[in-house]
Design goal:
The chain is an all-alpha fold and about 130 residues long. Helix content is about 80%, strand content about 0%. The protein is built from 5 helices and no strands.
């Protein structure tokens, strides 16, 4: 895969990481507001989570468009890396590392979201 394609994908993955970090921060604040039973802060923070979600969507869309524009072999290689596959070359290592970092922060976000959702929704939680 060409260096430019790897760099473009890495830029999008960093954008995803930034958006996930923002969402995690807002979710932490949301968890604190739920613990304080501050309904106004909860409503405000729930709406604030939309911005990082929109950023995530845009970065994922750009990454998918990039993947689709690549030759078939490169597109398949990029898809494998994005699914957590290991780097096969030294040039792929930063991309694979960023995928791993994104997966770790996403897990933290989902775990915290699960806790907050259960506190807010109780038996109506989307998490069972």
């Amino acid at each position: 895969m060409e260096a430019a394609a790897l760099l473009d994908a890495h830029v999008q993955l960093k954008r995803i990481y930034t958006a996930l970090s923002e969402a995690l921060d807002v979710t932490r604040q949301l968890a604190d507001a739920v613990d304080r039973d501050d309904r106004i802060a909860v409503q405000m923070l729930v709406s604030m989570r939309q911005e990082p979600t929109d950023k995530l969507s845009g970065a994922h869309q750009a990454l998918e468009q990039q993947r689709q524009s690549l030759p078939a072999a490169d597109a398949a290689r990029l898809a494998a890396i994005l699914k957590g596959g290991e780097a096969e070359t030294e040039e792929e290592a930063p991309l694979a590392g960023q995928v791993g970092a994104n997966q770790r922060i996403l897990k933290q976000l989902v775990d915290l979201d699960r806790v907050v959702n259960r506190k807010l929704a109780r038996e109506k939680s989307i998490y069972k």
